[in-house]
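Today's session is about reading a structure prediction critically. Students often jump straight to the picture, but the first step is always the sequence itself: look for stretches that repeat, for charged clusters, for runs of hydrophobic residues. Only then move on to the predicted structure, which in these notes is written as discrete structure tokens rather than atom positions. Here is the chain we will use throughout the hour.
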Amino acid sequence: MKKFLIGTVVLVLVAGIGYFFVYPYDYIVRFEAPSFPGTVNQSVKIWHQTAGTLDSEVEKGSILDFEQEVQAGDSIHQYSWHLEPLTDSTTQVRVGIRDVEHSLANRWDVLTGGSTVGKISRRMLTDYLDGLNEHVDQFKVNIEGIGELPSTFYAYVELESDQHGKAGGMMDHYQFMSNIMLSNKVQLNGPPMVIVDNWDRQTDSLKFKFAFPIVRSDNLPEHPLIQYKRIFPDRALKATYNGNYITSDRAWYALLTYAEEQGFEVEETPVEIFYNNPTLGGDATRWKAEIFLPIKEEEQGATE
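Below is the predicted structure for this chain, in token form.
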């Protein structure tokens, strides 16, 4: 009996030390999100910018694992997000929460059923999930599998922005490009495009071409901001996106997930073709874009 009591005390001490001083989180929230990991990842970054009094910063990590720092009243909470895809349209989310300055007190409160960090984090994450549910109702991504990147000659301007600012850059230059092409009687040869040259997923930043497909001629307008190039046909994974073009990058993440599941190696340089003019407004859920993610092959299509 004495040995049993000693052993029990030792186990309790070890468990207590582990819980209070070793375990990384004060509290954990788990829920199922109604979309794929890329949407969850990006929507967290938008949420922390738009959630009223919520003051937070998202540390760059991978799509599936990243850190967030949240100002909650007088406390700073660290959120550690872990995402695990379940199906094509659902993700298991685990958020480990730690109060930076009051961790020990919060862990004791959790044991006694009165955790402030638990109440605050549940409320905040419920608000986030409500927003996510609204967001996923506003767009649709349909993976079509292997397609062919269309060939075209195009006029373009080079732009840089974060992912969320891509659509703004397009709209800022849409009328400019249209006026140049129209005033110089350039024949258009298809809807506008975005051709991504560099996508830094660590910083969510882009370098891209906003392009108008045109018929090549010997009398193309010269302008310091406008350049010309041709894109050649190439194998690519293709998706159709319906929704506001601000969040068309949701299709990029869906294609990355599909590529990983199907064993494709892809270039992280999406090409988008837009079939609606956002400046005309209308129901964004009816807007259409085709999204291509080039497949890595030994011989890539040439460019000039």
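Discussion point for the tutorial: The chain is about 30% helix and 35% strand.
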